[in-house]
TrEMBL record:
Originating species: Microbacterium soli
Cleavable signal peptide: 1-21
Domain Solute-binding protein family: 81-417
Key words, A-Z: Signal
PROSITE patterns: PROKAR_LIPOPROTEIN
InterPro entries per the UniProt record, alphabetical: Peptide/Ni-bd, SBP_5, SBP_5_dom
Protein name (database record): ABC transporter substrate-binding protein
Length: 501
């Protein structure tokens, strides 16, 4: 079967991030060399350490820092894939042929040709430091069959591999550069902007427009500055003129004041920012009836209204996966929850430990849930920890559950794999595993979406994890800034952003 996609580049969707952008006295770029430089400053509420190599940095939030520098081979647009550095592609059995866009160069002037792409794919698949190895593990071989054609042999999971090329695994850098020691702090890609020497690694990254970029239409500003801002003080950064776009999730009470200062409120309810509890699949939580009892014991709407100021839409399925909006969250039913516990052999109740970040609203949400579940006979012990300790504590058996925010992924396949493995220590579900394999193999977008919708239905029905609600993130945008698009939280791709007078 031949699949052909032609069009303009869309947003690169990656990893789960909150981003903010800012500029003072910014103007749209013009060709006049004497015109003022146009600037947008992006304030990130999460840091990515001191590594800006998308292949070796395990922090999902790095996407917000690397997207100005790197184009991807393909581009995710909702449930479909479009052209990026690859203009079109063919899928015939185990063979995927990528037809590269001609005339594209890396920031060092070297060509983005088939040999360069093969070198990047092999690095992403084989390098021991690679954090995206799993995304390409079914790629048996990658071969440059001509200057502009790359042939992949993929015995299984073709759909997942194609989707991976729209994420970090598909971000290609100059082969001459990624062998250098300073590549992680000054990466060289083929994206719209290059890393400036004005950058202060770990604090403030500065990017300038690449004159040789193949699609100058997306370079709405000359200079981008990404700096770390505290979520609680983001309103001050907006009001003080340090940033032009900022999420005020932590301080929604400041929205009226910021609007009065000349900002507009923009929201993206379709973006996944879901409060969700992952659960180990051993002990009492290994029984789906116990997990279902937990889900039925929660009053999602009241927590949204009373704890999250009504900005969170009840959602039991995974918001970041297809079909979520059509899967109704269960209403609270204490009697039904008690009956499920008794049927599972726990009529005397169940007790389990859950870890949660010591920062943010997680502990407050869990305290509300704790009170609701007491009526069912379920006791939860809340253990707030530093963010860096959460996942390791959970997967190593130090807690039965992990409360966090799920922000999705650039494609369904890696997210489904993570939900079924890393985030569910102690066991899985045969039906979920089968659907996951089918979704990874499928290459037709409609077929993949249908499979992952079934996966999502099964996830919610068996309370494989307990979803609470999806928060609508509020972004404040300074007057004159146009083109804001948010496909994933904690990450604004600057392509298309402009700053007017």
């Amino acid at each position: 079967m031949r699949s052909k996609f032609l069009g303009v580049i869309a947003l690169i969707a990656v990893a789960a991030l909150t981003a903010t952008a800012c500029s003072t006295d910014g103007q749209s770029p013009v060709d006049d060399g004497d015109a003022p430089e146009s600037v947008i400053r992006i304030g990130m509420t999460t840091e990515a350490g001191s590594n800006y190599d998308p292949i070796t940095n395990p922090n999902a939030f790095v996407a917000g820092y690397v997207s100005p520098v790197f184009d991807t081979l393909l581009v995710a647009d909702g449930d479909t894939l479009g052209p990026g550095l690859v203009e079109e592609w063919d899928v015939e059995g185990e063979r995927i042929t990528l037809h590269l866009r001609e005339g594209v160069t890396f920031h060092d002037g070297s060509p983005v040709d088939a040999e360069a792409v093969v070198a990047n794919l092999e690095r992403a698949r084989d390098d021991e430091r690679s954090v995206v190895r799993r995304d390409l593990e079914t790629v048996q071989s990658a071969t440059a069959v001509s200057t502009t054609e790359v042939e992949l042999i993929v015995p299984s999971g073709s759909g997942a591999v194609l989707a991976a090329l729209a994420g970090r695994a598909g971000m290609v850098g100059s082969p001459a550069a990624f062998v250098e020691e300073d590549y992680s702090i000054k990466p060289i890609g083929a994206g719209p902007w290059t890393v400036s020497d004005d950058s202060v690694v770990g604090q403030r990254m500065v990017y300038t427009a690449y004159d040789g970029y193949w699609n100058p239409d997306v370079q709405g500003v000359d200079r981008i500055e990404i700096q770390l801002v505290d979520a609680q003080t983001a309103p001050n950064a907006l009001l003080g003129g340090q940033i032009d776009i900022g999420t005020v999730e932590a301080r929604p009470d400041q929205i009226p004041t910021i609007e009065e200062a000349g900002f507009s409120l923009q929201t993206f309810p379709e973006v996944a920012y879901q409060h969700l509890m992952y659960m180990a699949k051993d002990g009492p939580l290994g029984d789906p009836r116990v997990r279902q009892a937990i889900s039925l014991g929660i009053d999602r709407q009241s927590i949204s209204d009373d704890v999250l100021q009504g900005a969170c839409v009840p959602q039991a399925a995974v918001q970041a996966l297809p079909g979520a909006d059509g899967i109704e969250a269960p209403a609270r039913d204490v009697d039904a929850a008690k009956a499920l516990l008794a049927e599972a052999g726990f009529s005397d109740g169940v007790e389990f430990d859950v870890v949660v970040s010591s920062a943010g609203p997680g502990s407050t949400i869990l305290q509300a849930i704790q009170g609701q579940l007491e009526a069912v006979g379920i006791t939860i012990n809340i253990n707030p920890l530093a963010r860096a300790q959460l996942l390791s504590t959970y997967v190593e058996g130090g807690a039965d559950a992990y409360w966090t925010v799920n922000t999705g992924d650039f494609d369904s396949a890696p997210l489904v794999a993570q939900l079924s493995t890393t985030m569910s220590p102690g066991g899985s579900d045969a039906d979920l595993d089968q659907l996951a394999a089918e979704g990874a193999d499928a290459t037709d977008p409609a077929e993949r979406a249908a499979i992952y919708t079934k996966w999502n239905e099964r996830f919610a029905e068996g309370a494989f994890g307990v979803g609470l609600c999806n928060l609508t993130l509020p972004y404040m945008v300074r007057e004159g800034v146009e083109g804001l698009q948010v496909k994933m939280p904690l990450h604004i791709d600057p392509r298309g952003l402009t700053m007017g007078e």
